[in-house]
């Protein structure tokens, strides 16, 4: 039986590896309250996407494929909202603790713009 060696990356090592563009803040890591739910939803979405791929490979009807693509898109939007809600909650907590409203607002604004695109 093959053994895998797992190296736990410390925050310091992660920061040393990351090379943020000049003038841009380092990405913020958040506590994801709904982590297990999000992972479960993404696994289901992944399976759904594989099923859509199979439909295409099997030459199933375009309307049926499009319906399934719409369902995948809706599921992704839904899980994205959960992640965004966690992020907003964490930003509000950070603001309450640090009092840096402007930085928090910019972070939220950037997150919203990326999600809404």
Layout of helices and strands:
Blueprint: H1 11-17, H2 35-57, H3 62-98, H4 101-116
Helix pairs in contact: 2-3, 3-4
List the defining traits of the structure above.
117 residues, mainly alpha, Methane Monooxygenase Hydroxylase, Chain G, domain 1, 4 helices, 71% helix, elongated
The total count of strands amounts to 0
CATH first level: which class? Mainly Alpha
* Rg calculated over all Cα atoms: 19 Å
Query: What is the CATH H-level superfamily?
Result: Metal-sensitive repressor, helix protomer
Q: N-to-C SSE series? A: HHHH
What is the CATH architecture term? Up-down Bundle
Reported by name, the CATH topology is Methane Monooxygenase Hydroxylase, Chain G, domain 1
- Overall shape: it is elongated
List the uncertain runs.
1-21
Mean pLDDT: 79
**Structural class by helix and strand composition:** mainly alpha
């Amino acid at each position: 039986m093959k053994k895998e060696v797992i190296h736990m990356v410390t925050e310091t090592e992660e920061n040393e590896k990351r090379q943020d563009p000049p003038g841009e803040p380092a990405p913020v890591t958040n506590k994801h309250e709904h982590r297990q739910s999000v992972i479960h939803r993404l696994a289901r979405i992944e399976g759904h996407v594989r099923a859509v791929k199979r439909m295409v490979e099997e030459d199933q009807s375009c309307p049926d494929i499009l319906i399934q693509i719409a369902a995948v898109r809706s599921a992704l939007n839904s899980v994205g909202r959960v992640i965004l809600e966690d992020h907003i909650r964490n930003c509000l907590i950070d603001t309450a603790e640090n009092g840096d409203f402007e930085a928090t607002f910019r972070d939220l604004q950037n997150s919203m713009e990326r999600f809404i695109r």
